[in-house]
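Note to self: the last two entries modelled the partners one at a time, which told us nothing about the interface. This time every component goes in together.
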Amino acid sequence: MPDKVQRVKGVNDILPNEARQWQALERIIQDVMQRYAYGEIRPPIFEKTELFARGVGEDTDIVSKEMYSLTDMSKTSLTLRPELTAGVVRSYIQNNLQQISPVQKLWYEGPMFRQERPQKGRYRQFWQFGAEAIGSPHPEQDVEMIALFQAILDELGIAGSVTLKINSVGDSESRATYRSALQDYLRPHLNELSETSQIRFESNPLRILDSKDPRDKELVKDAPKIRECLNEASANHYEQVLKMLDIMDISYVQDDLLVRGLDYYTHTIFEFTSDALGAQDAICGGGRYNDLVHELGGKEVPAIGWASGIERLLLVVETISPLNASPELDLFLIVLGDDLRTQAPQLIRDWRIAGLSCDSDSLRRSMKAQMREANRQGAKFVAILGEDEFAMGVVQLKNFESGEQESVAFNQVVGTINDSI
Ligand code: HAM
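The predicted structure of the combined assembly is written out below.
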């Protein structure tokens, strides 16, 4: 036998049983996005590599070691999108979306690609849904963003087992002040830091704060806090955000070590984490990125957004509050005798056109086997068609739940079923 081709490491097949859970989640996402007045955007799956290098940052893990890049026939370097904020901003600039409305509220869903070490909740192709609001600098926009994800958690019934962690990295002036304060604090201990953090000491010292290395963790425990280095405008923005969260009764934990791994953030940053997961406990991450539109060639337009990993979110949903996503089949047609098989496709098509979900056996199996198949598919009704029934233009319609059975004319089947469900 020829060898079987296996799927690539770190990617998943989403099979019909699971896909039903995804669809149930997608219905909730679409409904909540509509209620919050966000419009869907579908940018391409690959972009010029340059977009991510400039947008996400050369020094980030994503750009320096995780991208799937290739060179196309015209020698342009292209990359499968590792995230979508840079792509949405590129699209916003290129399509002049600010002319349509000064605040663009957008949402998206789709696969992302990062060459990370696969483990539970961390994949090389994973799905995100996310939202970006481009145009408003004000704290009420930050709070709406957070409330938007919270609303999805509420609909899923898992808000109680998720923690919102929040911090502010301030504007660029505040970050420069903090950077020096942190470097001053760490300099005497430079040799005690992990190798990665020693490199980051110059290039991106804030990332040392979220290092997983125990040596780094011990050192940063007593490091100065970024909150203490915020200038007045940044401190004020952050205070307003917290105040509005309090008013809305959205609980949060201030996390001084939260920095996030992408370079574009300014001011408010946040993550939603869940104890139901292992090491990969972040189900959503985001924040403000007031400089990104300008850095990617647009005007100075402030923005904020978040993205959530669907596989991780569904792991939490499965443990805490599984979605009702059982298959739904209204009717299974059982055909007795091969002579009648020619009639079956026509009958079943009419019922499908009328809106029923119907199926029948395509293997010409025995009545018993057909009955078993109807059961397996969870059919609410079976319609039995034998020679006598066909001659009279009827089927024996059996309600699986009540056990009742009656003779029903072909053109009455849809009405009878609709009346009883
Ligand atoms: P991120 O924190 O890199 O942010 O990813 C957001 C979420 O995507 C994570 O919290 C996690 O749930 C999921 N995720 C990330 N990597 C993986 C992976 N390898 N496997 C499974 N799930 C994963 C961003 O991507 C930003 N673009 C978010 C944002 C939008 N900030 C502003 N706007």
